[in-house]
From TrEMBL:
Descriptive protein name: Coenzyme F420-0:L-glutamate ligase/coenzyme F420-1:gamma-L-glutamate ligase
Alphabetical list of InterPro entries matching this protein: F420-0_g-glutamyl_ligase, F420-0_gamma-glut_ligase-dom
GO molecular function terms attached to this record: coenzyme F420-0:L-glutamate ligase activity; GTP binding; metal ion binding
Coenzyme F420:L-glutamate ligase-like domain sequence ranges: 10-218
GTP-binding is among the record's keywords: yes
Source domain of life: Bacteria
Length: 250
C-alpha cells in the first residue's frame, strides 16, 4: 500500500532556519491509518526545493525584468530553446549550473517578496543529505529525503514534480535482465522511481495549499542505509541526450 500525506503547520522559512528542527514537530503530529504517528523507517520525506532554498539564503534581487533576466543568465550554462510571450517577455528553456534543463533556469518569482527571486539550492543532494542527518538526529528514524522542483517535459503539457536532490533512496530501478509476462527479456527499462515518488507527493502538497512537505510511506524497499548517489545521477549525460541536437549518431 502506498500512502502519502502533507501535514499542515509548516511555518514561513527564512534564511538560516534549521529545516530539520522546524519540520520534526510538524511531522510528528501526522497520524497514519494503522494508528501510528510521526515518521517511521522506510518513509520518504519529500521537500519542496523552495523552502530548502529559503533556508539556505538563495534569495536574490530581481527588481525588474532586466534584473531577473540577468539572474537567469547567471544560472545558465546552455540555452536550449526560446519563445516570445504575448506580453513581450521571452520564455527561456536552459540548462542550469546543476545540469537540469528547466524554464528560466529554475529561478522562481512566486511566493517570495516583491523585487526578489529564488535560486535553486546550490547542491540539492547535499541539502537532502543534511536534512536526512537532522531528521535522524532528532527522531532516531532514518527516512529517505527527496528535494523536488517542478518542470515541464518534452512533448507533454503540464508540469510535474521531480527529484533534484536525494539521500537514502534508490533513484532508479533497473529492470534490465528481468522478463515480462510473456518471458521476453527487458533490455532498456530503467524506471525513475525518485521522480515517481516526487510526483506522488505533489498530489498532496503544493504551493497553493501551503504544504511544502509530504511523507510517502510504502516505498521502504527503495530506502537505503547509506545516502546513495543522489539525484544528480538522474541527469542524462550529453552522449545519451537525443534532445541536445535532435539526432543521435551511432
Amino acid at each position: 500500500m502506498l500512502l502519502a500525506q502533507a501535514p499542515d503547520g509548516v511555518p514561513t522559512i527564512t534564511r538560516g532556519d534549521d529545516l530539520a528542527a522546524i519540520l520534526v514537530p510538524v511531522l510528528e503530529r501526522m497520524s497514519w491509518p494503522d494508528g501510528s504517528t510521526g515518521l517511521a523507517d522506510g518513509d520518504v520525506v519529500v521537500v519542496s526545493s523552495k523552502i530548502v532554498s529559503k533556508a539556505e539564503g538563495r534569495l536574490v534581487a530581481a527588481r525588474d525584468e532586466a534584473e531577473r533576466d540577468s539572474v537567469i543568465e547567471g544560472e545558465t550554462v546552455r540555452v536550449v530553446a526560446e519563445r516570445a510571450r504575448p506580453d513581450g517577455t521571452t520564455l527561456r528553456i536552459v540548462e542550469n549550473k546543476l545540469g537540469l534543463v528547466m524554464a528560466a533556469a529554475g529561478v522562481d518569482n512566486s511566493d517570495v517578496p516583491q523585487g526578489t527571486a529564488l535560486l535553486l539550492p546550490e547542491d540539492p543532494d547535499a541539502s537532502a543529505r543534511r536534512l536526512r542527518r537532522g531528521l535522524h538526529a532528532r527522531t532516531g528514524v532514518r527516512p529517505a529525503v527527496l528535494v523536488t522542483d517542478t518542470a515541464g517535459r518534452p512533448w507533454r503539457r503540464g508540469v510535474v514534480d521531480m527529484a533534484i536532490g536525494a539521500a537514502g533512496v534508490d533513484v532508479l530501478s533497473d529492470m534490465r535482465g528481468s522478463t515480462d509476462a510473456y518471458g521476453r527479456e527487458l533490455r532498456t527499462t530503467v524506471i525513475g522511481v525518485a521522480d515517481e515518488i516526487a510526483s506522488a507527493a505533489e498530489l498532496v502538497k503544493g504551493k497553493v495549499s501551503g504544504r511544502p512537505v509530504a511523507v510517502v510511506r510504502g516505498m521502504g524497499h527503495l530506502v537505503t542505509p547509506d545516502d546513495g548517489e543522489g539525484a544528480a545521477s538522474l541527469i542524462r549525460p550529453p552522449e545519451e541526450d537525443m534532445f541536445r541536437h535532435g539526432v543521435a549518431d551511432d
